[in-house]
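Case study B.
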Amino acid sequence: MIVDSLPRTTLTEIAGMAGGGAALPALAARLNIVEMTQAAEDAVLQPKDAGRWPHALRAALAARIARQNDCPALADRYAGMAGADMAVADPAVAGEAEGLTLVCRFMDKVSVSPRDVAARDILELQEAGVSDADIVRLCELNAFVSYQVRVIAGLRLMAESVA
Amino acid sequence: MNDVIHKFTRNVPDWRPRVTPVKLEDATPEQLDALQVTPSNTKVSAYVLTLAHDVETLKVRSPLFNGIMYDPGGLDRAARELSALAASVLSRCVYCAAVHAARHAQLSKSTEVTDDLFANGDKADLTPRDRAIFDLAYGLAGSPPAATPDQMRAARDAGLSDAEIVDAILSSALFGWANRLMHVLGDPVRKGAA
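Model:
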C-alpha cells in the first residue's frame, strides 16, 4: 500500500508531515497512533468535564510547556486557543496577577525537571485547596504535551537528517 | 518516609499514590468503563484508580500506550522497552524503570544490558544498535528534547529502518508522559509497604 498523505492532526501538521516528508511511510504504518494521539489531545485540552481548569487555561498551560520544550509552532497553536489566559502561555510569567503562581510553579517543575518532583509538591497543591482530581488533571495535561512535543521533535529530526 | 525506594532496581516495587485514588465502589459508570471493570475482573491497580480521576484521558491513554508498546511490526519489543527505560532513567522514575527493565530482561532473556545501565547509566557498554536506540531515546527525553542529527545518523548507521526509528521515538516520548504521572503522583515503595 502506498500512502502519500496522513490525516491533518496537530502532530502531523506541526511535525510538517501532513503533506509528505521522509518519515511519512513509517508513520503511516502507525496511523492508529497518530489518531489516538489526537484523541488524547482532545481529552486533555477540551474535556467535557474540565474540573477546575477551563479549556482556555489548559491551552495556555499547554503553550507554556511547548515553549519550554523549544517547540514554538506548537506553542503558537495552543496560545491561539488561550483567550484571556494568554499571559501564562509565556514561561517568563509567574502567574501572580492570575492567582496561578502555585499552579505555574508546579507545572514548570513537572515539565522541566520531572526528576526533582517530590511529595511536598503535591502536598502544596492539596494545602492550597486543589482537589486530588484536579491535581491528576494537571499532571495528565502536562504529561501529554511532554509526549507530544517529543514525538514532534523526533519526527522533525528524522526529516532533517534524511538518509 | 523511609520505605521509599530511590535506587534503580529490576525488582518491581509497589506504588503508593500521593493523592487518594478513586474508590471502586464510588466509581461512575464512565469510570468503570474506562477501568474495564467487569464482574470477573475487579482487580484494578492504585495507579489506574488514581488516573481514573481524569477519566476522559485515561480512556484514550490506555489503548495508545498499548499500541505504542505492543503493536506488531517495526521495532522489536525489547528495543521498545530499552527506549522506555532510557527516558525513565533520565527522569529518575524508579518505578517505570523497574517495570521496563524487568520486561527488557525477560524479552531479551538477559539481565546484562539492564545491569550495566543501572550501574553505569548512560555510560553503559552497549552494542552499537542498543547504543543508538538508547542515545536517541535519552536525548529526546531531555527537557527540552536534545536528540541530535548525529544521533539520528547513528541510528541509521546501526541498521535501524525508518519504521524502527519511529517506534523508538514513540516509546521514548510515551515515557515522557508516563514518567510525569508515575513519578509525580506517587512513590515507589518496598513490596507490601503501599
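Residues 2 and 189 of chain B are 9 Å apart (CA to CA). The remaining cases will be described in the next quarterly update.
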